[in-house]
## 1
Amino acid sequence: MAEPLERSSHFTVSSDLATGSPTVTVSLEGEIDAAAAPAVSSELTAVIDSGCSMVRVDMSNVSFLDSSGLNALLRANLEAGTAGTSLHIDQPSDAVRRLFEMAGVRDMLISATDNHG
């Protein structure tokens, strides 16, 4: 995995975009809030614009997700659809899963293989 593109005291975002694979994994860690959302959006947009066919967002190490972070993910999902790219949330933490369920977007964003619980 590549070095983190953005690191602060409370979040990390990184991707394996440089591998040239048709499937790119973006890994998010820590608190995805208003401070982190712009970096998350920027990285997801760059990955989608790369022309890959699938973006997998690993959220297994996300301890907190607020509406700003959710908005970044929903916008990326729309961008991906427009670009003909699939975007899937993989291994959502309990905090992520709870927010997705409260917002009514679980089935739209979580991969079918991770859509349990």
## 2
Amino acid sequence: MTSKVYNKQIGGRHYMDMVIQPSEFINKNKLQFAEGNAIKYICRHAHKGEVQDLEKAKHYIDMIIERDYGPRENWVEGYNKWKELSMKGVINNKIKVGDLKKLLK
């Protein structure tokens, strides 16, 4: 059952016409800020902000990826890292696992 607080919306009706409002879904699932905003913008894009809302959702999804999985490296950075580790013997199993932490610094 929906709480009374979700029976009103300040400024428009773009959430009121939904089966479940994004804010209710977000709160009941205890989602973090970025996840909540991504869901909000995806849900409302057709009724309010159109492409700009989808761009905002993508922006929040990028924030989540960086926050939870670290910055992504491009293939050149990955290759250079592999080449450096290879020259140090890591790729060819010439190094002890305990020494790997020192080399990665």
## 3
Amino acid sequence: MSLPKASAKRGIVLAAVVAFTVFGAVSAFASTLNVGPSALSAGDASVASCRQSGTPITAEYTAAYDSAIPGYKVTGVTVTGMDPHCNGKTVAVTVAGASNTLLASGSATYDSAGSNTSVVLASLSATPPVADVTGISVAING
């Protein structure tokens, strides 16, 4: 069964109108995204580094012996090398195990008082065995 030519042309015109309408709406929404150093959006913007000049940002975990393991467990993370202009930003860490399995996480607000360049995360979501830790990731937000 074939459609009459006029009906087929109307279908093509209708499809074109819908396509242009959807494309226009998506473009309008995208043009309202804000780009800046404190927001995650589409686009690009210059963002100042929170790394102190000439010093890498490093993360080290603190450990305490736990006779229940028996062995050492991670009790906190210290992030060093922060630039004082990042005062008030949130430092989030994740402690990972094999295959990037999340073992623990935590966050703290960086306070640059007294030329402090470190932030200590003394409270994590868990205290995994040190033997299971394969890495630490750091994100600075705000």
